[in-house]
Amino acid sequence: MAADIATQLAVERLLARYVASIDEDRLEEWPDYFLEECRYQIISSENYAQGLPIGVFFANTRGMLRDRVSALRQANVYEAQRYRHLVSSTLILGERDGIVTAQSNYLVVRIMHDGATALFSTGRYLDRVRLKGPEPLFAEKLVVFDSRRIDTLLAIPL
Questions:
Q1: Domain positions in the chain
Q2: Mean pLDDT, consecutive 10-residue segments, the chain of 158 residues?
Q3: What's domain 2-145's architecture?
Q4: Closest CA to 85 of 67, 48, 111, 113
């Protein structure tokens, strides 16, 4: 039982640090929660259920995630905004060879520069987390959003 609790806490702590880096606009930290070779994808629940590979964002290395942050900071033009994540408890689905498979539900509220607040995205995180090493890291994070509609202002990672 102690190993199960330790695993649960390790995965939930990683997820808490991940969303805090986004919500607190510390985006430069965000890629550090992933392995060098990783998978990060934002995809609709419809495409995910049908096994379709097309999503709205895809990266398969930490370098690609760093490029995304650089583009957000230096090149992209978008309306000032920030997020606030609410994340459910994490359901550990399994563990094999030091990789934990987990699922959490999320809700993201977007706060615009003028104070307007709106429900932005809901869905689930499907994660594969490597526990070996000094800190747990995401080997894979699939952000499976519920709605068929995605706002064109999806600039900041979910």
A1: 2-145
A2: 82 98 96 98 95 90 94 75 93 95 96 91 97 94 88 74
A3: Roll (3.10)
A4: 111
